[in-house]
């Protein structure tokens, strides 16, 4: 009785509260997880536009070096693009900030922040996150860190330009190169704030999943999306503090004269006073976050894919428990493979062989996921809507990108292609494009839940096919120029006659990149116009079994009016014999004699 009374009071409070909602408490400093998810998504989209725009600029520079472009002069100014020719310093800055924005601000914050916030309370049957205020603070810290990162673009000496991995000494000595000055300091400040945001969010997600599940929602009845977000949050809590410590030590090296990462260094013949530090220590600290980071980016996308593929194949996901075990195995292994980024840093060859072993081991749970997706699709009644196409696209890039990971994970083979375009091709396919596909799949699938309207399906098809063609058009040829030895991060290769023959390939890659980048405008138009003018959605547009589709379309703080639904079955009862519909929601009680397949 007390629970019902509590529910009733809660509803009453909300009703009272609803009248007092001002614009600021509803849209800006909101503590409602659904609004915070939208804030993350739209901030992430804006950061994504900046990140993709930068990649289009530096691709033009690589394809047509020394050429004069009016747009360079317009966007970069006379200092960084005199007469419309890009300077080498600003090229490095564009590469650095592009990497930083895409990895952290788009693929980490926008993907996890949007979908963990939107789905965790709705899919586990909770009124909201464990702490709405912490949730709000985590978004605003993310917002502040985004603003600081964008501000660093306007510093007089130029933004950070030590690569997104900010290795010392370029990042540790303010006088090293133009981009080592104030721009680098702002980069470090931005990342420190970003990590705080990420940790607050992650702790909230973990507590919510453990404590606030509705009646009947055991851990083995959670949708795979929730498992993915939950384990992702745990990886974040374990690994992000290590990057924070590295950033703080770097700030101390830069500003307070310590030498954690610096040893005997000469600049222009002058001997600096640093001694005893080691840049390799920084690499260890950076990659101890940097490799789990790949899975912080990938696992939410894989979770979303599990949900979308099961729903649109009208079949139970194949190997539910194996999928959970593979997520946990990936999380564990991801923390003991970071050394494969450092095979050529002078690491002990025996240690290299240990990291090779653990790296190749992580291919097993990844393959389990890939095979389970393919088996779920096999002989399914496929509904090929845009969300489904992006999910299938993810399975494709996850496999093609993952195969080259086997080459890079082997220290003997890695030495030959390290720091070439082969590496760029590998991690963009397996991490960048796969995670973006997961994000797009999630947006197409849950847009009706977020905004109460449908996206335009035909524009979605155009968006998918052009994006998929251009993504492979950009990253597939990179494998070949990488094997031919073309180094990455060089702003022109004209000094090496050896590479003259590869210039045509770079032009082709750039053309695909420009077309693919411009066609994201189709998605942006579809997204922003559908928020206001899209077709109104029905309660459960995809005929899905999970709890979020039982909540009313009109958003109320607390998700459900009255009682929270109870759960009686696992989330993938599609096409189940003995039922009239081809989907049985989790809230439908079991019939006598009906057994659960996933046990």
Task: Tell me what the structure shows.
With about 600 residues, the chain is an all-alpha fold. About 65% of the residues lie in helices and about 0% in strands. It has a single domain, classed as Cytochrome c oxidase-like, subunit I domain (Cytochrome C Oxidase, Chain A), CATH 1.20.210.10. A two-stranded antiparallel ribbon has the order 1-2. It is a multi-pass membrane protein. This is Alternative cytochrome c oxidase subunit 1. Its main location: membrane. One of its GO terms (cellular component) is membrane.
Rg over alpha carbons = 25 Å
CATH H-tier superfamily? Cytochrome c oxidase-like, subunit I domain
Per CATH, the architecture is Up-down Bundle
Shape descriptor reads globular
The largest beta-sheet arranges its strands as 1-2
Approximately how much beta-strand content do the residues carry?
Answer: under 5%
Order of helices and strands: HHHHHHHHEEHHHHHHHHHH
Largest sheet: 2 strands, antiparallel
- CATH class category: Mainly Alpha
- End-to-end C-alpha gap: 33 Å
How much helix, percentage-wise, in residues? 55-70%
Count of helix runs: 18
How would you state the average pLDDT, rounded?
93
User: Ranges with pLDDT <50 over ≥5 residues?
Assistant: 1-18
| CATH domain topology | Cytochrome C Oxidase, Chain A
């Amino acid at each position: 009785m007390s629970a019902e009374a509590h529910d009733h009071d809660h509803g009453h409070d909300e009703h009272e509260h609803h009248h007092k909602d001002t614009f600021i408490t509803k849209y800006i400093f909101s503590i409602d997880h659904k609004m915070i998810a939208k804030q993350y998504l739209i901030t992430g989209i804006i950061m994504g536009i900046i990140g993709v725009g930068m990649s289009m600029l530096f691709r033009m520079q690589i394809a047509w070096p020394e050429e004069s472009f009016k747009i360079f002069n317009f966007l970069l100014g006379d200092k960084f693009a005199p007469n419309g020719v890009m300077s080498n310093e600003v090229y490095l800055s564009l590469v650095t900030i592009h990497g930083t924005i895409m990895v952290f601000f788009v693929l980490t914050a926008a993907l996890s922040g949007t979908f963990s916030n939107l789905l965790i309370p709705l899919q586990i049957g909770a009124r909201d996150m464990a702490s709405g205020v912490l949730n709000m603070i985590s978004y605003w810290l993310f917002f502040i860190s985004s603003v600081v990162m964008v501000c660093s673009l306007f510093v007089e000496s130029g933004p950070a330009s030590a690569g997104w991995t900010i290795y010392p000494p370029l990042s540790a000595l303010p006088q090293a190169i133009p981009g080592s000055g104030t721009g680098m300091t702002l980069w470090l400040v931005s990342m420190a704030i970003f990590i705080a945001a990420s940790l607050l969010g992650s702790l909230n997600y973990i507590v919510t999943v453990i404590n606030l599940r509705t009646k009947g929602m055991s851990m083995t009845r959670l949708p795979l999306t929730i498992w993915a977000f939950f384990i992702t949050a745990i990886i974040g809590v374990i690994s992000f503090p290590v990057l924070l410590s590295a950033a703080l030590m770097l700030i101390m090296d830069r500003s307070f004269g310590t030498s954690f990462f610096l040893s005997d260094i000469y600049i222009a013949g002058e001997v600096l006073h640093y001694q005893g530090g080691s840049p390799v220590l920084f690499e260890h600290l950076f990659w101890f976050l940097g490799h789990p980071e790949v899975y912080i980016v990938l696992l939410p996308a894989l979770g979303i894919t599990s949900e979308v593929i099961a729903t649109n194949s009208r079949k139970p996901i194949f190997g539910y428990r194996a999928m959970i075990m593979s997520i946990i195995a990936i999380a564990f292994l991801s923390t003991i493979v970071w050394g494969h980024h450092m095979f050529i840093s002078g690491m002990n060859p025996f240690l290299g062989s240990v990291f090779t072993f653990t790296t190749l081991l992580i291919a097993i749970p990844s393959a389990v996921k890939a095979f389970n997706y393919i088996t779920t699709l096999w002989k399914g009644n496929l509904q090929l809507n845009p969300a489904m196409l992006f999910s299938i696209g993810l399975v494709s890039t996850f496999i093609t990108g993952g195969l080259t990971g086997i080459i890079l994970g082997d220290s003997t083979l890695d030495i030959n292609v390290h720091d070439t375009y082969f590496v760029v091709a590998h991690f963009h396919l397996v991490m960048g494009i796969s995670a973006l596909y997961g994000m797009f799949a999630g947006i197409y699938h849950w847009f009706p839940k977020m905004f109460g309207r449908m996206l335009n399906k035909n524009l979605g098809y155009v968006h998918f096919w052009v994006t998929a063609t251009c993504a492979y058009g950009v990253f597939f040829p990179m494998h070949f120029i990488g094997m031919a030895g073309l180094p990455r991060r060089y702003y022109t290769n004209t000094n090496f006659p050896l590479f003259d023959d590869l210039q045509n390939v770079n032009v082709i890659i750039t053309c695909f990149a420009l077309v693919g980048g411009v066609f994201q405008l189709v998605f942006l138009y579809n997204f922003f116009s559908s928020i206001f003018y899209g077709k109104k959605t029905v309660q459960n547009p995809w005929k899905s079994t999970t709890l979020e589709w039982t909540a009313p379309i009109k958003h109320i703080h607390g998700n459900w009016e009255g009682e929270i639904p109870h759960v009686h079955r696992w989330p993938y009862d599609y096409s189940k014999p003995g039922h009239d519909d081809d989907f049985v929601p989790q809230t439908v009680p079991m019939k006598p004699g009906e057994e659960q397949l996933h046990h």
